[in-house]
Amino acid sequence: MNLTKINDMTKEEIIAYIDSKDVEVHFNLNQFDTYYDNKVLSYSKLSKNKNININELKNYAYEINDTSERVEWAYKKQLIEDSAITKINTKPKRGEIWTCQLGKNIGSEEHKTRPVIIIQNNTGNEKSPTTIIVPISNRPKKIAVHIELMQSDYTFVDGIVGDIKGTILCEQIKVVSKARLGKHIATLTNDFMDNILTSKLKMSIGL
Prior knowledge:
Blueprint: H1 3-7, H2 11-47, H3 54-82, E1 96-101, E2 113-118, H4 122-127, E3 130-137, E4 146-149, E5 154-156, E6 166-169, E7 174-177, E8 181-188, H5 190-204
Helix pairs in contact: 2-3
């Protein structure tokens, strides 16, 4: 159902539509609850097996932690969505490093709250509710489009102290809502942005 069709509905049709969606939402919530209840219960039962070895137990601990993070993210994501309108005027600049709530994602996609580099042009950053980023990960450099970030490659925003260590994952270019952005913490040097990062981004998408 798209918004155009909703706009064409009568009052009675809208009421019926809302009622049907209410049923659908509760059905999906029940499926979600049942799925994760069963998953957690299975981990609990397996962990109480007296014959289980320590490595199997560690695997179950990792899996239940992953499950916990996924459930928590489902709730946090909705809170971020609810606050999106308040972030519409956020105006990051190309080459800046921001914290970003990437969430709990699939497989090797970067997740959790990570520093990210804004790579979208500044016209888009000014006018769009979204921006384009590449994440900075704790994982080591492995492939040609990875860049090890050094302290000489950026300057901190006044008042920010510490060190941003990690690998820029130029293969994980991602569009994100500005609602996911936290705070501006640093800015890349022009030399790094123009001569190193840009070339790796081009390599990543085959330009």
